[in-house]
Amino acid sequence: MHAHLDSCPRCAWAGSDPQMRAYHDHEWGVPTHDPRALWESLMLEGFQAGLAWITVLRKRVAFRAAFAGFDPERVARFCADDVARLMADAGIIRSRAKIEATLHGARIYCEMAARGEDFAAFCWSFTDGQVLQGDGHTVPASTDLSARVSKELKRRGFKFVGPTIAYAWMQAVGMVDDHTAACFRYRRPAPQRIDATP
Predict the structure, then answer these.
(1) pTM score of the predicted model
(2) DSSP letter string over 110-160?
């Protein structure tokens, strides 16, 4: 991390852990348009369910090694032997349900691609391609929009994508900018243009 950022005010959740701070400063809330990266983030958020994000973050390198760099086409071909291998991998979160959900999620991603449906376009369609700006004061656990996103993800067959996980994912990939007003990464909304003509 850059030394000059060490004393910058941040969102409270970034805390004092260097890895969490680096994630906050350089990744969280940055608009992501790469379909593979969006899918990886969604899968990792699923692994977070019931746990703290720092647990996933500390294991992310191991997750990427275990899941073939989160290449959906490769993960979609994983079989029972791969599930057994993953269940024996102490570097990741060894939840059979979450592992199998990731394999299933890879197959959904590939099925969408085979139909000509771009995963990034699908993701960003929920916000009409725009970044939704939080108010800088309240950071909800979920919203009406994340409930709709969750419902659509579930309809398509994704697992571990409840409204809270969906919202955390939307924040992580920058579909929602929820940095607090005191944070150095907070983007103040542009002033509204006032048209003087009647």
Answers:
(1) 0.92
(2) HHHHHTT--HHHHHHGGGTT-PEEP-SS---S--HHHHHHHHHHHHTT-SS
